[in-house]
Predict the 3D structure of the following.
Amino acid sequence: MMQVESITLREIRMNLREPFEISSGVEEERRILLLELREADGTSAWSECVAGNAPNYFPETVDSAWVVIKNWLAPRVIGREFESADEVGPAVEQDVRGNNMARAAVEMGFWALQAEMENIPLAKLLGGTRDKVSAGISIGIQPDVETLISKAERAIGEGYSKIKIKIKPDKDVEYVRAVREALGDDVAIMADANSAYTLDDVSTLRRLDEFNLVTIEQPLAWDDLIQHADLQQRIKTPICLDESITTLTRAREMVKLGSGKIINIKPGRVGGLRQSKFIHDFAEENGVPVWCGGMLESGIGRAHNIALASLPNFSLPSDLSPSHRYWDRDIVRQEWTMDPQGYVQVPHAPGIGVDVDVDFVDDLTVQSEEITS
Ligand code: OSB
Ligand code: MG
């Protein structure tokens, strides 16, 4: 039984160690929305909303999520008794359209809280079976091929099991070819377009077939399934959908239509961990591999992703770089690390498995608000 008395919203600002560019924009100073849930017995738990500064990946933003949580979601869950975190997803979904990232932030806070109250790791509460998860790196769009190659080579040297490179028109075939030639045939390479192409680009996308990519991620429109199905008929490279998969229903449609063969699960994008587990289970039953995507999270969001990625069908390396890839200093202790074989350990400690450095969070906070009803 859980009863949350307050949810504190905080916006912190953190500078990425280097700018991260995708086809639709660049992030440098991240605005990160954190939630702290406080239970009647005094236990607290943290979650992170993955909405960005701008709506260039998904419709939500830090500002929209703040309003939605404050005005619509927090009032539904504060003071209410829940048997388990599994009941929270439906409670914040009822008659709420979209706003998946806002809903997920609240729902994920409850999962962390339940794990904390039961004194078990979040991974265990979710049904995770791995004690370490395989990490890939997502490398943003680079100014030139040489810079990209040197970053990709360094990542391989650090042990990463997968290199994902961001692509966009005119920074695609040549860039992918260069990375494949530099890294050799055995390295798992993915290319992520973040919706930069249309069906007019089929001939370019078909040229990527020769590089034996694990997948091309979300080449076409961010909310499309139909055109991706058409494209998948015309290219050999398996399509992985990211932006388009927002619910279990969309995952079913992907399989039915043939819009893709792999799913990138981001709990924020699909409205939380309950929905992530549904998609994971459905994918497993249908022979669709999944992996966990990242949203340049702080160590708090990363903790939730690592717990999720410990489930059995996360069979491809996930975008789970360690803390130092993003930040000079992360907001959790211990910081996230990766071993030389490219694995991140799933924590054994209860809850999200790491301590939040609250003093440092306070230093980074630019606005905060405690919601009690
Ligand atoms: O498409 O996976 C994406 C970051 C911001 C927005 C979209 C994406 C990404 C990443 C980053 O690829 C992955 C990470 O957190 O390392
Ligand atoms: Mg993506």
The pocket of magnesium ion (ligand 2) is lined by residues 192, 194, 217-218, 242, 264, 293 (CB under 6 Å). Residues 84 and 359 are 30 Å apart (CA to CA).
